[in-house]
C-alpha cells in the first residue's frame, strides 16, 4: 500500500485523543485497575471466605432479588407510561414526560429519605399499609421500592424512541389483514420494540445492582435481612476490612459488566433489526 | 393534522376509549405514587415548621460549610469533565481510528460502576496501604477524608455526562459544516468556536447542567472517601444523611429541598433543550 | 492551467479508488467529472480541494501524485490555504447562521489585517446575494430555504472568498427534476458571467453534456476520456464511454477483409485487409434506418414490439427475426410517413455504427449512408 502517513483534514486529532486517553487513564482506568490488583493480592481462600460468607450471600440475594423485582415492575409500568406518553394526548402530558427523569436528577440521598418518610409506619403511604400487616420501610419490600424508583426512567426512556420509530404502516397493514388491536399490539408492536424493552430492563437492573444512597435509608440495614451488597462494602470499609470490601466489590462489578455486555449485545441486535426494517 | 384518535380506534388502529383512559390512569397513578409523592414529601417535610425553620436549617454553620464544599467540588470536577467531554467528542465523532469503539465503551464505564465502588477505588489508591498512600503520608498531603478525595470521587462518578450528550449529537450532525468552514479559510480554533460550538451548544449546556446536578448530589462515592468530618468534609448529601440520622428531619429535608430544586431545574432545562431541538429538526424536515 | 493533477492515486484500505490520474483543466472552463458511483470522481474533486490527500510516494509508484493550482504545487497545503470554493453535495450550510452570515463567513474568519472592513463585507455579500438572486433572503436561516435556494447560498458562500477555482460535488444531486433543470441552465449562465474555472462532479450524463464545456469521463479510478460533450458522445474513446453516455445496443460479430457481419447484417467497414476477427458492434437509437421498402441490401425484417410516441422523438422497440430487440428513434414526421403501428412490420439496418476488436481500445466509427446516394430524410 502506498499510504505511509495518514493525513487528516480536520485539525486537533492528536491532542484531543491524547487528552481523552490520558484523562480516562487518570480518572477511571488506573483507579479501577487498583481494585483488581488488590484482589489479586488476596489469597484464593481469603477471597472465597469474603465473597461467600453467609452475610455476603444474603446481601447478594437481596441485591439481585430486589433489583430484579424493581426492573420487572418498571418493565410493566414503564411500558404503559411510555405507550401513554407516545400514543395518547392528555392535559399535562409535557410535565408528566419531563418528570420521568426525576429519579435520574434527584440526588440519591434525597430520594432515600423521601421514600423512607413516605413508607415509614406513620408516613403518607406507610400508615395505610401498616394496618394491612405490610411493612414497607425497613424491609426487603422497601429495598425493592427504592430500586423501582431509581430504575424508572430507564425503561421509559429506551422504549419511547423505539415506539416513535415504529412506522404507522406496520399497524395499518396488520389491521388491514384483519388482526384485532390486541393481536396487533402483541404480534406486531411488541416484537418490534422487544430489544428496546430488554435494554431498558437491563439498564434498570444494572443501575439497581450498584445503588446505595436511595436504599440505605429505607432498608434499615439489618445484616442477613435488609443489607444490600454495596452497603456491605461500606460496612467492611468502616471496619478497615479492605480485602473483604474489595472482594465483594469485584463480584458486584463483575455482575455489572456482564449486564453491560448484555446491553451492548441487545443494542447490536436492535441495530440489526432496524437495519433490516429500513 | 393527524386523524383523531377516535376515528383511528374505529379503524382498529388505536385502542377503544375506555382502554385509553384506563392506561392513562394507570400511568399517572404509577408516576404519581413513585415520583410526585416523594417530591412533594421533600418539600412538605422541609417546610413542616415553617419558612423560618427552613432558613435557619440552611444558615446553620455546618450546613453552610456543606453547601460551600459541594459548590467547590462541583466547580472543580464539572470544568474538567467539560474539557474532557469536548476533547473526547471531537476525537471520537470527527475522526476514524483503530480502537474507537473500545474507547467509546470505556468512556461509559463509570456508569457501570457502583458509586460505592468508585469511592472504594480511591480509598485503595490513596489509603495508607494504597499505591500512593505511603508517599502522600510522607509528604503530609491529605487526599482521603479531605477535599481532593471528594473532588476525585465526584469527577469519577460524573465523568461521562458531557461526553455522552455530545458524542451522539456530533456523530449525527457530521463534519461537513466544519469542512466547509475550513475550505473558506477558517483556522481550527475558528471552526470549533464559530461552527462546532454553536451547533452543539444546547446539548453541551444540558450535559453541563446534568453533570453539575450529579456532582452536587453524589452520595455513595463521596460518602466512602469523605470521612464525614462535620463542618469540614461533609457535602450537602452527606449533611442530609447526618441530620437525618440525628432525627433532625426538618434540617435534613431543608438541605434536601435545595438539592431537589436543583434536580427540578435540571429537568426543566432538559425538556426545554429537547423541545428546542425537536422544533429545529421539525423545521428542517419541513423544508427539506 | 488552473488545475493540474499529476499521477494522483488514492487508496482506502485495500481499495484503490484513483489509479495514477493525470488531468489538466485550462483557465475559465466549466468541466464535468462524469462517472458511475465508485468511479472515484468525488475523491478526485476532494483531492483537488484538499479534503483528501493523495497517497504518498513509495512502494511501486514512481513519485507521489501532485496537485497544482495555477501552476503552484499545493499538494501539501491544507484546504484552508488553497483558496478554493467548495460546494458540498448537501450544501453544508451553517445551520446556526442566517444566509448573510453564511456568505460572509469566509471573510470574517480572515486574520485581522487581511479582513475587509465591515462596509466592504456588507457590500460584497449583498453583491453575491444579488448574483444568486437571494437579495430578499439575507436574514433567513438555511432551514427556511428550499433546496435550490440553499444550493445558491452554498455557491455564493464559496464565491465570497474569490476562489481560484470552484469545485462542486454533485451540485444538483439533491434537487428534484424541475429545479435541477432550471439550476443547470442558471449555473451555465453564471459561469459565463464570472468565468471562474469550475469543476463539478456528476453521475448524470445528460447533466454533464448539457452544462459542461468539457467532460472528463472516469471509470474505476481511471480517466477514460477527456473531451467536449460532442467528442465524448459522438467519438467515444473507449467502450466504457460508448456504453456510459447514452443508450447503446451491442452485437457480437466479426470483421473480415472490409466486411462486417453482425446480427442479420453484412456491411462495409473502412478497415481493409486482415483476416477474420471477432468484433463488437455498438449502435445508438438514432443510428438506425427504418423503412418499409428494402432500400439497403442488408435491410433486415423486424416486428414493432412497442412504440413510445408521446414526445418530440418517437422510440420504437424492434424485434429482429432472431428474437433480439433493439431501440430505434425516429421523428414524428417519419413515423407518419412509415405508418408504423405496434405489432406491425418494418425493415431496419444501421445507418451508422461503431465497432471494436478485442485488441483495440478506441471504437471505429462507420457510416453506411455513403453507399449509393440513399440518404433518407429522418
- Report the average pLDDT across residues of chain B: 90
How far the N terminus sits from the C terminus of chain C, by CA atoms, comes to 42 Å
Beta-strand content estimate of chain C: 25-35%
- What is the H-and-E element order of chain B? HHHHHHHHHHHHHH
According to DSSP, the number of beta strands of chain B is 0
Uncertain runs of chain C with pLDDT below 50, 5 residues or more? 372-378
Estimate the helix proportion of chain B, in percent. Answer: over 70%
Q: In what range is the share of β-strand residues of chain B?
A: under 5%
Based on CA atoms alone, the radius of gyration of chain B comes out at 24 Å
Question: What is the chains' assembly state?
Answer: heterotrimer
- Spatial strand sequence of the major β-sheet of chain C: 6-7-8-3-9-10
Question: What is the number of helical segments of chain B per DSSP (H or I, 4+ residues)?
Answer: 14
Number of helical segments with 4 or more residues of chain C: 9
By helix and strand content of chain C, what is the structural category?
alpha+beta
The profile of the biggest β sheet of chain C is:
6 strands, mixed
Shape type of chain B: globular
User: Mean pLDDT of chain C, rounded to whole units?
Assistant: 90
Taking the alpha carbons of the first and last residues of chain B, their distance comes to: 19 Å
Q: Please give the largest β-sheet of chain B.
A: none
Q: Estimate the helix proportion of chain C, in percent.
A: 10-25%
Mass-distribution shape of chain C = elongated
List key phrases describing it:
heterotrimer, A: 278 residues, MetI-like fold, disordered N terminus, B: mainly alpha
Amino acid at each position: 500500500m502506498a499510504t505511509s502517513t495518514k493525513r487528516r483534514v480536520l485539525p486537533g486529532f492528536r491532542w484531543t485523543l491524547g487528552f481523552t486517553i490520558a484523562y480516562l487513564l487518570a480518572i477511571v482506568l488506573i483507579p479501577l485497575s487498583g481494585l483488581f490488583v488488590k484482589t489479586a493480592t488476596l489469597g484464593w481462600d481469603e477471597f472465597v471466605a469474603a465473597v461467600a460468607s453467609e452475610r455476603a450471600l444474603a446481601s447478594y440475594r437481596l441485591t439481585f432479588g430486589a433489583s430484579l423485582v424493581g426492573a420487572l415492575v418498571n418493565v410493566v409500568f414503564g411500558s404503559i407510561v411510555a405507550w401513554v406518553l407516545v400514543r395518547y394526548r392528555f392535559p399535562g402530558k409535557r410535565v408528566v414526560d419531563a418528570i420521568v427523569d426525576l429519579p435520574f436528577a434527584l440526588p440519591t440521598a434525597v430520594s432515600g429519605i423521601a421514600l423512607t418518610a413516605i413508607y415509614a409506619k406513620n408516613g403518607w403511604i406507610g400508615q395505610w399499609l401498616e394496618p394491612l400487616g405490610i411493612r414497607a420501610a425497613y424491609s426487603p419490600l422497601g429495598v425493592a421500592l427504592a430500586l423501582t424508583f431509581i430504575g424508572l426512567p430507564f425503561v421509559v426512556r429506551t422504549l419511547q424512541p423505539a415506539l416513535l420509530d415504529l412506522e404507522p404502516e406496520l399497524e395499518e397493514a396488520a389491521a388491514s389483514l384483519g388482526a384485532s388491536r390486541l393481536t396487533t399490539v402483541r404480534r406486531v408492536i411488541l416484537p418490534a420494540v422487544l430489544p428496546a424493552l430488554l435494554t431498558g430492563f437491563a439498564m434498570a437492573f444494572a443501575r439497581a445492582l450498584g445503588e446505595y444512597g436511595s436504599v440505605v435509608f429505607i432498608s434499615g440495614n439489618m445484616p442477613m435481612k435488609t443489607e444490600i451488597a454495596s452497603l456491605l462494602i461500606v460496612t467492611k470499609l468502616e471496619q478497615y476490612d479492605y480485602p473483604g470490601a474489595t472482594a465483594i466489590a469485584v463480584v458486584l462489578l463483575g455482575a455489572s459488566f456482564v449486564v453491560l455486555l448484555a446491553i451492548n449485545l441487545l443494542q447490536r441486535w436492535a441495530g440489526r433489526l432496524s437495519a433490516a426494517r429500513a | 393534522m393527524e386523524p383523531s384518535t377516535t376515528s383511528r380506534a374505529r379503524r382498529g388502529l388505536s385502542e377503544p376509549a375506555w382502554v385509553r383512559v384506563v392506561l392513562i390512569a394507570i400511568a399517572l397513578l404509577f408516576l404519581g405514587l413513585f415520583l410526585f409523592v416523594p417530591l412533594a414529601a421533600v418539600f412538605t417535610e422541609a417546610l413542616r415548621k415553617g419558612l423560618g425553620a427552613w432558613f435557619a436549617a440552611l444558615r446553620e454553620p455546618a450546613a453552610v460549610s456543606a453547601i460551600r464544599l459541594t459548590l467547590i467540588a462541583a466547580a472543580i470536577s464539572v470544568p474538567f469533565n467539560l474539557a474532557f467531554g469536548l476533547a473526547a467528542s471531537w476525537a471520537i465523532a470527527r475522526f476514524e481510528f483503530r480502537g474507537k469503539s473500545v474507547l467509546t465503551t470505556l468512556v461509559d464505564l463509570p456508569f457501570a460502576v457502583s458509586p460505592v465502588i468508585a469511592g472504594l477505588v480511591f480509598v485503595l489508591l490513596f489509603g495508607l496501604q494504597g499505591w500512593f498512600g505511603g508517599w502522600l503520608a510522607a509528604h503530609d498531603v491529605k487526599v482521603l477524608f479531605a477535599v481532593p478525595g471528594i473532588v476525585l470521587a465526584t469527577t469519577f462518578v460524573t465523568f461521562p455526562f458531557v461526553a455522552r450528550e455530545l458524542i451522539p449529537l456530533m456523530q449525527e450532525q457530521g463534519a461537513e459544516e466544519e469542512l466547509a468552514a475550513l475550505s473558506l479559510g477558517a483556522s481550527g480554533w475558528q471552526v470549533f468556536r464559530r461552527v462546532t460550538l454553536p451547533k452543539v451548544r444546547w446539548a453541551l449546556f444540558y450535559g453541563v447542567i446534568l453533570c453539575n446536578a450529579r456532582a452536587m448530589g453524589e452520595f455513595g462515592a463521596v460518602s466512602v472517601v469523605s470521612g464525614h468530618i462535620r463542618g469540614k468534609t461533609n457535602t450537602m448529601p452527606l449533611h442530609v444523611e447526618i441530620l437525618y440520622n440525628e432525627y433532625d428531619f426538618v434540617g435534613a429535608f431543608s438541605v434536601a429541598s435545595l438539592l431537589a430544586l436543583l434536580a427540578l431545574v435540571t429537568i426543566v432545562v432538559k425538556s426545554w433543550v429537547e423541545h428546542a431541538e425537536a422544533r429545529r429538526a421539525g423545521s428542517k424536515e419541513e423544508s427539506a | 492551467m488552473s488545475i493540474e493533477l499529476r499521477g494522483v492515486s488514492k487508496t482506502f484500505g485495500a481499495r484503490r479508488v484513483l489509479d495514477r490520474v493525470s488531468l489538466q483543466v485550462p483557465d475559465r472552463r466549466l468541466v464535468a467529472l462524469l462517472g458511475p458511483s465508485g468511479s472515484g470522481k468525488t475523491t478526485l474533486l476532494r483531492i483537488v480541494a484538499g479534503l483528501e490527500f493523495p497517497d504518498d510516494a513509495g512502494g511501486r509508484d514512481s513519485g507521489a501524485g501532485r496537485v497544482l493550482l495555477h501552476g503552484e504545487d499545493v499538494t501539501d497545503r491544507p484546504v484552508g490555504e488553497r483558496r478554493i470554493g467548495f460546494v458540498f453535495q448537501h450544501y453544508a450550510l451553517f445551520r446556526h447562521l442566517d444566509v448573510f452570515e453564511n456568505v460572509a463567513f469566509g471573510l470574517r474568519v480572515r486574520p485581522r489585517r487581511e479582513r475587509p472592513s465591515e462596509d466592504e463585507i456588507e457590500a460584497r455579500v449583498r453583491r453575491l446575494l444579488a448574483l444568486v438572486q437571494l437579495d430578499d433572503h439575507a436574514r433567513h436561516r438555511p432551514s427556511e430555504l428550499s433546496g435550490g435556494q440553499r444550493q445558491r447560498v452554498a455557491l455564493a458562500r464559496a464565491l465570497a472568498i474569490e476562489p481560484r477555482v470552484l469545485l462542486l460535488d454533485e451540485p444538483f444531486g439533491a434537487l428534484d427534476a424541475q429545479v435541477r433543470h432550471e439550476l443547470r441552465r442558471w449555473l451555465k449562465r453564471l459561469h459565463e458571467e464570472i468565468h471562474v474555472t469550475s469543476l463539478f462532479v456528476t453521475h448524470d450524463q445528460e447533466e454533464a453534456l448539457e452544462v459542461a464545456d468539457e467532460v472528463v469521463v472516469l471509470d474505476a479510478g481511471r480517466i477514460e476520456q477527456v473531451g467536449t460533450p460532442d467528442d465524448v458522445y459522438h467519438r467515444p474513446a473507449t467502450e466504457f464511454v460508448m456504453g456510459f453516455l447514452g443508450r447503446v445496443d451491442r452485437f457480437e460479430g466479426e470483421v473480415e477483409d472490409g466486411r462486417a457481419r453482425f446480427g442479420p447484417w453484412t456491411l462495409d467497414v473502412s478497415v481493409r485487409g486482415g483476416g477474420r476477427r471477432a468484433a463488437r458492434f455498438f449502435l445508438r437509437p438514432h443510428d438506425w434506418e427504418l423503412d418499409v421498402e428494402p432500400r439497403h441490401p442488408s435491410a433486415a425484417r423486424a416486428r414493432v414490439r412497442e412504440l413510445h410516441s408521446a414526445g418530440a422523438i418517437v422510440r420504437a422497440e424492434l424485434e429482429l427475426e432472431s428474437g433480439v430487440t433493439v431501440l430505434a428513434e425516429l421523428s414524428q414526421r417519419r413515423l407518419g410517413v412509415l405508418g408504423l403501428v405496434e405489432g406491425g412490420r418494418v425493415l431496419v439496418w444501421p445507418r451508422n455504427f461503431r465497432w471494436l476488436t478485442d485488441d483495440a481500445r478506441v471504437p471505429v466509427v462507420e457510416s453506411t449512408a455513403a453507399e449509393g446516394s440513399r440518404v433518407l430524410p429522418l
